[in-house]
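Session log. Operator J.P. requested a structure for one protein chain; no other inputs attached. Running the standard single-chain path with token output.
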Amino acid sequence: MFSDRLRHLRKLRGLSQESLGKIVNTTKATISNYENEYSSPSNSMLVDLAKALNTTTDYLLGNVDSYERIKEKDFDPLVEINKLIKEYGITDSGFFDIDKWKAMGPEEIAQLENYFQFLSEQAKKKNLDK
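Structure written below.
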């Protein structure tokens, strides 16, 4: 059950095994092992995976049937932005105005992720054209 739910949510969130691995500080192979039931995560890794996938450990473990998104009061935009920065390999974050970023909600973070994904795809196309 864990492996299926992990794979489902990873894909639902638009993450590759490699990008999820980066978010939780592990490898693509480790995520693959979890999804193929070759190994199980430690308790701390389970918590990290749940946070990265915006769900609960109870959902991943099969204790509840619907995944819950992080409640607005628990949402930390800076944590979410830092995940995106790591996932998309953005190294120069000096242009960020932290006070403005703190005011973002889940919808704005989703828009920011879409923008990062767009920029990443444009960079890939540009490199292919060369």
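Operator note: The mean pLDDT is 79.
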